[in-house]
Design a protein that fits this description.
- The chain is built from three helices and no strands.
- It is mainly alpha-helical.
- It has one domain.
- About 0% of the residues are buried.
């Protein structure tokens, strides 16, 4: 924690970079969840047999 504070005092971009990385990781997890959900929904729509749909719902 002390090293981060010292480096942030030396270089003002370090703290903002760490914040950007933090927010980016959160956003990336949300985006991947959203895309996975959307993709699963499309995949279920595309599959015609109800057994296949049931399998996709259970195992994903």
């Amino acid at each position: 924690m002390n090293d981060i504070a010292l480096s942030a005092n030396e270089n003002p971009f370090v703290a903002t970079n760490q914040l950007y990385v933090f927010f980016f990781s959160i956003m990336r997890s949300y985006i991947t969840k959203f895309l996975m959900h959307k993709y699963k929904f499309l995949y279920i729509k595309k599959t015609s047999s109800p057994i296949r749909i049931f399998q996709t719902i259970i195992f994903n």
